[in-house]
Amino acid sequence: MTFTSLELASIYKLSLMMAEADGRVTIDERRIIESVFVQKFGVTNESEADHIERLAGELESPADLSYIRNMDAEKKEYVTAFWEALMAVDGEINGKELVLMNLVSNLCELPEMTVGRATEILSIDLNQYK
């Protein structure tokens, strides 16, 4: 599965929003974002990471949401798994994170998913980010 730069920028932008939703970004959240982008999304060089970060900064809503909404079902499942894991990695799913995830899920027509299913899809153990 291959993601375009604009899809990755949208995922990155919304990932940061998800991590910041509870008013703080933990080291665990930073670690999982970096790890998933490198190991699962294939963003392996610094220039590509800088490009995605720059694009994310330029994207405005609802464009960021439209790139997610227009993904195929397989990509949506993977992105949902990532965001579920991101919300859970610090050991607590905050109400504000959940509200944001529900809003994005509804707007982008993402599948429902449990944290357990998310870790299966990503083949990760959330404890590795602690």
How does this model look, in words?
The chain is an all-alpha fold. It has a single domain, classed as Orthogonal Bundle (TerB-like), CATH 1.10.3680. It contains seven helices and no strands. α1 packs parallel to α5. The longest helix has 16 residues.
Please give the structural blueprint.
Elements: H1 5-20, H2 27-40, H3 46-58, H4 63-69, H5 73-88, H6 95-108, H7 115-122
Helix pairs in contact: 1-2, 1-3, 1-4, 1-5, 2-5, 5-6, 5-7
Q: In summary, what is this structure?
A:
The protein has 130 residues and is mostly helical. Helix content is 68%, strand content 0%.
Q: What keyword list fits this structure?
A:
TerB-like; 7 helices; mainly alpha; globular; single chain; 68% helix; 130 residues
Total helices: the number is 7
Report the CATH topology name. Answer: TerB-like
Strand count, sense and closure of the main sheet?
none
What is the highest CATH level, the class?
A: Mainly Alpha
CATH superfamily: TerB-like
The tally of structural domains comes to 1
Uncertain runs: none
| Whole-angstrom Rg | 13 Å
